[in-house]
Amino acid sequence: MTGGAAGTTGGATGTTGTTGGATGTTGGATGPGAHEGILRRQTQRESAARTYARSLPIVPVRARGLTIEGADGRRYLDCLSGAGTLALGHNHPVVLEAIRKVLDSGAPLHVLDLATPVKDAFTTELFATLPGELAADARIQFCGPAGTDAVEAALKLVRTATGRHDVLSFTGAYHGMTAGALDVSGGATGVRATARLPYPHDYRCPFGIGGERGAEIAARWTENLLDDPKSGVPDPAGMILEPVQGEGGVIPAPDGWLRRMRALTEACSIPLIADEVQTGVGRTGAFWGVEHSGIVPDVMVLSKAIGGSLPLAVVVYRSALDAWEPGAHAGTFRGNQLAMAAGAATLAYVRENGLAERAGLLGARMLAQLQGLAAAHPCVGDVRGRGLMIGIELVDPEGMGPGGLVPPPDPGLADTVRRACLDRGLIVELGGRHNAVVRLLPPLTLTDEQAAAVLDRFADALAAAAQAHQNRPAAARPPR
Ligand code: PMP
User: Fold this and answer.
1) Per residue, what are the HEC states of the chain?
2) Once rounded to an integer, what is the mean pLDDT over residues 99-116?
3) Domain ranges, ordered by start, for the chain
4) How confident is the model over 284-340, as pLDDT tens digits?
5) Could you name the CATH architecture of 94-352?
6) Closest protein CA for atom 10 of ligand 1
7) How far is CA 68 from the centre of its chain?
8) How far apart are CA 439 and CA 94, in angstroms?
9) Better-predicted residue by pLDDT, 415 or 472
10) 100: Cβ–Cβ under 8 A, 6 or more apart, which residues?
């Protein structure tokens, strides 16, 4: 197993302090003064819409594997991994080599959607990883470079193929930030409303039951909606779902429920779109998230890790859906050769080194350790995940949640935990409906030693944050 930056896991107390000043290799001034100045200018000049930059006030100048080094010389263990993009961590040697090879070959870097040997190799490698039934009959569309572009393309594809408009989507879903993707996501407001169906949620079950029974009722609800001529839901052009909801709070779809959704959509001739932007390339313990349930979707939306850390997105679908006119979904930036080379190298590395399986085993072990930690901390309401996609939901144990079943989420505590993690040299982000879920998305190359260091730092941060919150005034607690 490779990919870890040697000597970076350090002790549980986190930041290693100075590392001798990261100068010389990164093309810019570094050191504490530069760090402050860069952050100050960012605040002055960049949009109020900036996101990660607010919660992670660091200035990365160098990175390798799990580790990022800031301009102030501090080192961090990165469990955000570019929002789940970096399957092999930062600057993995096979990725760098693939990029260098293209650069040194004199190949054109911009080619619109023309055929190239690099693209040909990427497509071959990607098809080799797909569920066999889909790969045997698949078409691929190279769309704009972000996950949200691939979602837009998928929506347009199924609308064109079916001649219908509405797309079924789920509560808590996240599919991106462009208009169509927002339209099928759970969190956005001010967009055209389409039906949101209940996504099974064991901990905060919309039916107050959880487990298999909760998932069963969620499935029946959807089945009934499509069966009832007076449900008020027009015949849909498709259904879009995430095999594990990521931004929605790390909620794995039960395999049985996914199979029900597959059977239902198949029976009703509704194309099923699996958004594998975050769950793909080994993240959940299988190469693709849908593999756990054995279902084969009609459309797969892929991005993040498939570009090996560079921007790349594609839609892969059954040939029967390929009813597009030439140029129906065009765009200037659909031929990123460096991303295709880096992506092909990443896909091959994950496949050849069994990293999906490794993610499944290591993820299960980390989950068990975190569950042990939860037992000692009543403010941890739930620990869940699949593979190396892990969520820890923070709650106010003394509060009363909806229906009195589980305690209310505590986003304030989650924010304090995130900051305490950063103080200890651990980068994590928050997600979930109420922003109260601490998310761990480490690279699949995580070593046992690094996993132990991550959990040590997290445990230390959690204990400190819980302590700080224990005595906070009532006004600072979540509403009851
Ligand atoms: N779908 C899913 C499941 C995602 O997690 C994301 C990004 N977090 C997107 C789509 C959108 O991808 P992008 O941010 O690259 O547009």
Assistant:
1) CCCCCCCCCCCCCCCCCCCCCCCCCCCCCCCHHHHHHHHHHHHHHCCCCCCHHHHCCCCEEEEEECEEEECCCCEEEECCHHHHCCCCCECCHHHHHHHHHHHHHCCCCCCCCCCCHHHHHHHHHHHHHCCHHHHCCEEEEECCCCHHHHHHHHHHHHHHHHCCCCEEEECCCCCCCCHHHHHCCCCCCCCCCCCEECCCCCCCCCCCCCHHHHHHHHHHHHHHHHHCCCCCCCCCCEEEECCEECCCCCEECCHHHHHHHHHHHHHCCCCEEEECCCCCCCCCCCCCHHHHCCCCCCEEEECHHHHCCCCCCEEEEEHHHCCCCCCCCCCCCCCCHHHHHHHHHHHHHHHHCCHHHHHHHHHHHHHHHHHHHHHHCCCEEEEEEECCEEEEEEECCCCCCHHHCCCCECHHHHHHHHHHHHHCCEECEEECCCCCEEEECCCCCCCHHHHHHHHHHHHHHHHHHHHHHHCCCHHHCCCC
2) 98
3) 1-79, 94-352
4) 999 999 999 999 999 999 999 999 999 999 999 999 999 999 999 999 999 999 999
5) 3-Layer(aba) Sandwich (3.40)
6) 175
7) 19
8) 27
9) 415
10) none
CA 437 to chain centroid = 13
Task: Measure the CA angle with vertex 234, ends 233 and 237; round to 5°.
Answer: 115
Kindly report the number of other CB atoms within 10 A of residue 233's CB atom: 15
| Cβ pair 69, 63 in contact under 8 A | yes
pTM of whole model > 0.90? Answer: yes
Q: What is the number of the ligand 1 atom nearest to the C-alpha of 313?
A: 15
Atom of ligand 1 nearest to the CA of 176: 11
- Nearest ligand 1 atom to the CA of 278 is 5
The mean of the pLDDT values for the chain is: 91
CB distance 293 to ligand 1 below 6 Å: no
- How many alpha carbons lie under 13 Å from residue 408 in its C-beta half-sphere? 13
- Report whether 95 contacts 309 (CB < 8 A): yes
If you measure from the C-alpha of residue 146 to the centroid of ligand 1, how many angstroms do you get, rounded to a whole number? 7
